[in-house]
Write a structure and sequence with these properties.
One of its GO terms (cellular component) is plasma membrane. One of its GO terms (molecular function) is L-valine transmembrane transporter activity. It holds the Pfam family ABC_tran. This is LivG3 protein. By secondary structure, this protein is an alpha/beta fold. The chain folds into 2 domains: about 180 residues, P-loop containing nucleotide triphosphate hydrolases (Rossmann fold, 3-Layer(aba) Sandwich), CATH 3.40.50; about 70 residues. Helices cover about 35% and strands about 25% of the residues. It is built from 10 helices and 10 strands. The strands form 2 sheets. A 6-stranded mixed β-sheet has the order 6-7-8-3-9-10, with helices on both faces. α6 links the parallel β7 and β8. It is globular, with a radius of gyration of 18 Å. It starts with a strand and ends in a 9-residue tail after the last helix. The model has no long low-confidence stretch (mean pLDDT about 90). It binds adenosine-5'-triphosphate. The site of adenosine-5'-triphosphate (ATP) has 11 residues, from β2 and α1.
Length: about 250
Amino acid sequence: MPLLEVQHLTMKFGSLVANNDVSFYIDPGQIVGLIGPNGAGKTTLFNCISGFYHPSSGKIVFDDKDVTTFSAYQIARLGAVRTFQVVKPLKEMTVLDNVLVGAFLREKQTGKAIEIADQCLDACHLGEFRNSLAGSLPIGFKKRLEMARTLATGPKLMMLDEAMAGLTSTEIKEAVRLIQKIRDSGVTLLVVEHIMEAIMPIADKVVVLEGGNKIAEGPPREIIEDEQVIKAYLGEKFSQRLKTTGIKNKQE
Ligand SMILES: Nc1ncnc2c1ncn2[C@@H]1O[C@H](COP(=O)(O)OP(=O)(O)OP(=O)(O)O)[C@@H](O)[C@H]1O
């Protein structure tokens, strides 16, 4: 049974159709990439799945429950939690306190919540910064902090919105390893990303949006050879270059 099913989702802002009849599913344990050009509707879809927007029509089923009209808080409590493209840590609070905000969603006892927060900080290589002010961290660390906070909620599905944008190539490699480690710990991931070299080698499946429509869905190897995706987003040269990276052949 899929962990998440998006069925015929349409989201309109007035006359603008940001998502048009989009359907896809995510099986437990998968890393699914959500890609497409600027304005394709990726963030809007994220906002619908995570309860920040309610779709104009269609249905969202998470963990066998119809969550279409649920609030962001209700959906987070069920285990679908997102990060934001523009990270906004609580700057005047310490790194630990920021992660505690996530941990308290699942654990009321302070001692246990601190234990969870520390584990998540260590997993995200932030342990040594636990007492620093979040506002003082460089961008790469802020992105990891956002992941640690999300991880601390104990998610079943983690949705990452451009978690690697603005990072150095070393930081991107670290972020990729971290995403794989999170998946190996049993968390399913939906990842919006523009950095194809980062997402294509680790994704089990990729969903492609353009102009609000889903134009392709499949394993990365198929996606990079899809004529419509090459035309709309990847470009011929880039598609050739991606073929030389270690991309999975088929959906597992
Ligand atoms: N709150 C809103 N009100 C009105 N229009 C919106 C709103 N949010 C998004 N849009 C519009 O919906 C369309 C899809 O935007 P969205 O941010 O979902 O795309 P995206 O694929 O995430 O783009 P990017 O890669 O640049 O982040 C755009 O035309 C955008 O201007």
